[in-house]
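Two entries, shown back to back:
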Amino acid sequence: MASKNHAPVSRGRRPLSIFVVLGLCCFFYFLGSWQSSGYGKGNKLTKVVTDQAECKTFTNLENVDNLEFEPQHKYISISDSAEPEAKVFKPCDAKLSDYTPCQEQDRAMTFPRESMIYRERHCPPDGEKLKCLIPAPKGYTTPFSWPKGRDYVHYANVPYKHLTVEKAGQNWVQYRGNVFKFPGGGTMFPQGADAYIDELATVIPIKDGSIRTALDTGCGVASWGAYMLKRNVLTMSFAPKDNHEAQVQFALERGVPAVIGVLGSINMPYPSRAFDMAQCSRCLIPWAANDGMYLMEVDRVLRPGGYWVLSGPPINWKTYYKTWKRSKEDCKAEQDKIEELAASLCWEKKYEKGDIAIFRKKENSKSCKKKSANICRSNADDVWYKKMETCITPYPQVKSEDEIAGGELKKFPARLSEIPPRVANGLVSGVTTESFQEDSKLWKKRVNYYKRINSLLGTRRFRNIMDMNAGLGSFAAALDSPKLWVMNVVPSIAQNTLGAIYERGLIGIYHDWCEGFSTYPRTYDFIHASGLFSLYQDKCEFEDILLEMDRILRPEGTIIFRDDVDIVNKVIKIAGGMRWDTKMVDHEDGPLVPEKILIVVKQYWTASSGDSGSSGQ
């Protein structure tokens, strides 16, 4: 009976099933035709066809010759056959191997010396930008991996012995055959940075995660920042490109965060309340000059409750005034003026012994003894190329003396995943607590996908990493490891999120990618560019940004681009003339997503490879 009852039902469903299958086939046929026609988002230049469910991952990027760059996701160019071939960029002349476009000496010397203006950024106009590839010097070698890289640098990579002579008695750097050795000394800590930091730690809670971000003004070869990394503190170090040749280059070659910079006439490229501490170790910045403008600038970027360390002149002037060839009265007047300025900033001196003085900024304005009428009126986070002002950045408002102005931060690493106070207080336009959490979750997923593409990401192979369009810093947060650090760059034309990035315990800088970055060539192992070229497509030439990326990327370094497929194809066309190996893969959510990922590995070549040099004009 059962078979008799169900047989008619089965026969009745068969035509219906066939109809449904035919209907679905027709639907997907028309959908595919629509996407290929160019009316779907982003498929005007390229159609990506997935041949396999799984993308083949890269397991070794150290040897470019071993890479298979035939795309697993084959793509068929449908661009106009009449379109010209990719422009081939020639190598620049070997003498340009350390070219820094915005800090070149010849251009710098045409600017005034007052307030160190000539040491600030002075970038070439469009007509003078180089259109060639900066070569690595002869014999260039992959830097030592961390932590060995902290103490050793290949001479061939930074062939300058000047500091080994000038700073011979201060234990900065020693030349030993084909390498430089960095013993960890400095002008104010010739016996080593560890002992110096241990003394600071008797006053400043360096070891418990309260101090995470630090600023070193006039850093030398950044040994202080290098040894602060042992305490899980990220230091933003800067020094000018001056007669102490290659200070910042040495720092980055060692695997320590640093940029070319100076306290001059414009604001530092960092947001307000960014750093837990700042230090000047014989940096020779005239803190008492210009009505205290430089100390006011440090105050702007120092977090409420943060610390400022001054070691060297004029501290301990009673011992050294004759060595400095200065009078007692002059030295005393300078220190008195600094302490008077510190008090006006609502700082309290916590320690003075030997060559070191430590000040602490009050946690809010209610606890200040002096109230200044000279308050800044401008936006303390709108600082790109803005003139430094002689005024005091106001504290954020609080309701009680126990409250920390701007919001209390968790100790690191807890603060990495906590909601930044700027986000919680609605100070980052368009970003809510929920969207911040979603962004963090999204980038964890994306970074995991990147690691499937390149299994060396997150290892010691890539130490110096840059995120060119950092957003909320979630890429860096997902990667966080003692094996690496990330320079989070917030473009000057993007949403201002850098303050929130610092509140996560990360470091970064403002920059305009239509100009050269404040670093030496070959200083980053890995560069991430998500949505950067969509952001800049109407602002400046793609080739100028790509040439700058090539300049700062080390030979055999890697770039990951993430952008709309149209944009990615434009990048691929230019990259074809740049000695890059490229591979485009699908979005982590599949081939139907118009956003694509481009993997680049820079080929190894040097100025001695037999190329004829180009002036680049």
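entry 2 starts here
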Amino acid sequence: MAVEDNNLQVLNALDLAKTQLYHFTAIIIAGMGFFTDAYDLFSISLVTKLLGRLYYTKPDLLKPGTLPPAVSASVTGVALVGTLAGQLFFGWLGDKMGRKKVYGMTLVLMVVCSVASGLSLGHTPKGVMTTLCFFRFWLGFGIGGDYPLSATIMSEYANKKTRGAFIAAVFAMQGFGILFSGIVALITAAGFDHAYKSPTFQENAALSTVPQSDYIWRIILMFGSLPAALTYYWRMKMPETARYTALVAKDAKRAAQDMGRVLQVEIESEEAKIEQISRDETNQFGLFSWEFVRRHGLHLFGTCSTWFLLDIAFYSQNLFQKDVFSAVGWIPKAPTMNAVQEVYKIARAQTLIALCSTVPGYWFTVAFIDIIGRFAIQLMGFFFMTVFMFAIAIPYHHWTLEANRIGFIIMYSLTFFFANFGPNATTFVVPAEIFPARLRSTCHGISAAAGKAGAIVGAYGFLYAAQSKDPTKTDAGYPAGIGIKNSLIVLGCINALGMLCTFSVPETKGKSLEEASQETISGQP
């Protein structure tokens, strides 16, 4: 137990603390940020069809208007681009300025831009879409900062026995965010449908989209700012994490005071030990040094590659839910509904999937991550995602037949379940554990940004790839693609590759953060 004795008392106290109220407060404070992230990123897919009807329906068309390819890709993708930039920038800033300060900034940015994206200005399609994309970019920028900071704060607050479950629980709030966005859309659409009766598109194209439905998408997008705004006060009251204060800011006294208050115990401030650590040469290497490459190069490759590959599959699946549902008839053909009913049907399908597979998957991870470990969950998740993807893709025609629709939905739900009880959760947890404190938030940001790059590939790539091979059957404005079946086969191969890359990620179950990141507290490597 030599490591323990040389470790700082304040870090030991955190590592060995019993699970108590402040752990749950931290989960809720950090989790609410994540709840908002998921709400904002995924609620857009509920309203894109409505935006198409409102702003791009031409009087002589036989079917409702849809967003042109470039606009559709921008509206869904611009927030992801913002997120990628935010992850890199705020991840770096979190190691420079401290987790807590930066955490407040990201929250304010998220709340302001979430409200602003619903206030998109002008009446012309171009004006509305431009302002919507502008605010969604900055909304994404704020959301990006939340990734590295939430994970780092939670990992630095947690004890070592249940740390995995705590970080995964913060991430699992994403599931509730997706669920909540569906429920808000359902309630809003049901209310408007009741208040403003309108015929279906087939019966009367002009009257099928009531002018009031312009409020629906605005309400849905703006609602996301509420939970984040509510936690602002608590987020500001949370003390800076002890690992940042002691190991990065080198302020032993404050670290001991802060954690003494949180844990309600006396902790001595060991200034001499911190002096010794700061003089220790083995702990001075920066991100762009050979020493970093030697110690953590493979780890960073592992966390980036697995997250990148996972998000290609995960986001293309999530953003294209409604296309998959329409293909199997869960959502009726567009002309048979009015605008408000369409929002309702899309939200209903997304909420059902979230309830039955997305949310349970996250909590399975929370329950098992500290029992079977990160590595096993990630490997198993990628394996089953590969299996179910191929099982859907190869006999794809079979699943599109009326009789087999329920089977298809079950298979589709299972790929989601194993993404969340698998790499979607573990890729978030591990980068917050395996890098040294002074680079932790930066490296988590880099890994997360690699993931978002995958999401962008998934979102944009799949939009084009999934188009029919027959040029006459593609959506308006798109070139012919490789078809849904081949796109799914490609995603299956990507999952299999993710399984291979998992082998470069170390297991951190039951280790303290200093052991997991090989930080030498004692002066001996």
